[in-house]
# Entry
Amino acid sequence: MEKQLVQRMVFHGSAMILLGLLAGFPFALVLTGDMMGEARAWRMAHLEGLLNGMLVIAAGAVLARVVLEASTKKLLVWSLIGMGYANLAASVTAAVFGVRGLTPGMPLSNFVVYGLFMAAVVGVLLAMGLMMYGTRGGVGEGDGPQGVSERGGPSKQGG
# Structure
């Protein structure tokens, strides 16, 4: 199951990066004056996809080192994936409609952006809390999950 979770993290992280790259096109058009919009907002949309995607992939790379029950690990993974898409959707929506979503208020698009950002905040706080909980105390030589030593190679016990 863990291999499947890591594959999903790499897939969704890559999709977020691709979407972030695509958000770079309107950013460039705004910078050149070929499209109306806020450069700051499109820069954020562009970077949200790139950075959130990298975070999801990086977390997938260390998932084997996180010691949690299978269901809790699944919650961690989906919290990160949901956080990434929520941040990306919020920032693109904010750029398209010219809102910031910093507080709940009119117009409706601002409420949507605010809600997406709040969902992302909950997701990342939950995921990072679980990540910290699952890595507390460190892993000693040969005590890692499935025979992985602290240096990442096979342990003396696990072969």
